[in-house]
Structure formats: C-alpha cells, structure tokens
Amino acid sequence: xxxxxxxxxxxxxxxxxxxxxxxxxxxxxxxxxTVRLFPIALSRDARQYSCQRLxxxxxxxxxxFSLYKKHHWLVRGPTFYQLHLLLDKLAGEQLALIxxxxxxxxxxxxxxxxxxxxxxxxxRIPRAPNGCEEVPAMLSxxxxxxxxILIDAHEAxxxxxxxxxxxxxDLIVSNVIRTDELQGWFLAExxxxxxxxxx
Length: 199
Ligand SMILES: [Fe+2]
Fold this sequence. Notes:
Layout: H1 13-18, H2 44-74, H3 80-107, H4 116-122, H5 135-162, H6 166-189
Helix pairs in contact: 2-3, 2-4, 2-5, 3-6, 5-6
This protein binds fe (ii) ion.
C-alpha cells in the first residue's frame, strides 16, 4: 500500500486528526480462484472445488436476478400488474440466494465472484436482447435459465457431498435447488394456455 500521493494535512491540528486518507491503492492480496487455509475440517481441494462450483452458480444466479428485474420493469399487457409484482418477488428471492452463496464461498476461504463484468464472462445463461420481448418469451427465458442453474446445482451438490463438503451440499440443496424448483413451478404455470372467460 502506498500513500505517497495522498496530501498529508500539516497545519490544522483538527484536520490532522480527522482528514480521511483519500485515493488509496494497494496490491491484490488474494487472487480469484484461490482459497485461504481455514480450519473448518475440509481439505484445500474440497474447498477449492466447492468454491469453483459455487461461483458458477453465483454468476448464473446474478444473471437470473438481473433478468427478473429486467422483466419486472418491461412486462406489459393485461397481466401487467400481477406479473410486475410476482417477478419482483422472485427477484428478491434470487437476491437473497446471491448473498447466501457468496458468503459460503467466503466461508470456504475463497473469493466470491461479484463484479457484473466478471459475472458476464463466466455465466452460461444466454444473453437476452437489450430490448423488450413478448411476455411469454420473457417467462420462457426465465424458466430456461432456472433449469440451467438447477442442472448445474444437482451435479454440484452431489460432487460436493462426495468430496466431504456437506455444508455446501446442504446450501445448494436447501437454498438453491428448493428455491429454483419452486420458482420454476410458478413460471411454468404461467405458460399454460387456459381459457380465461369461457370453459
Ligand atoms: Fe420495482
């Protein structure tokens, strides 16, 4: 860490005691993809593997959250209000998942993926158009993204358990899989073409 470019107050005693040290720069002290040695009864290999799998799920979940917000804003038509509220609720659940997954990565000694530009580099969820799609296509896109995460989560949970990382297994099953399965149901039911007025 260097402070050489930060002007140091010298005159006023009060300023000396309360002046923030601005524009600080420092070295990167832990590289992405590495894990520190934490004494939580898990091998370095197990923790590193779990962090890698969790970061993929984390990146895809961050994109899914963004898609929920995009569609919460852009949805239109006769079901606007219902979908506007529902998509925001589901976005909120994804946001909670993001924090849970990220803090599991930190618990394992790793680095949680966070910058949206980094997230965009590793996500496997297809990019949506910048403009607006028709509402059924929005919902279908959300459903497909959800299943993509579920496919990955099922496999990651099994592998984490095989490596002895039961905490990560539990988090993926209890949080990611259960949340995304339920959200998949809510989305899929909106894609059933049922009559509204005449049976
Ligand atoms: Fe809103």
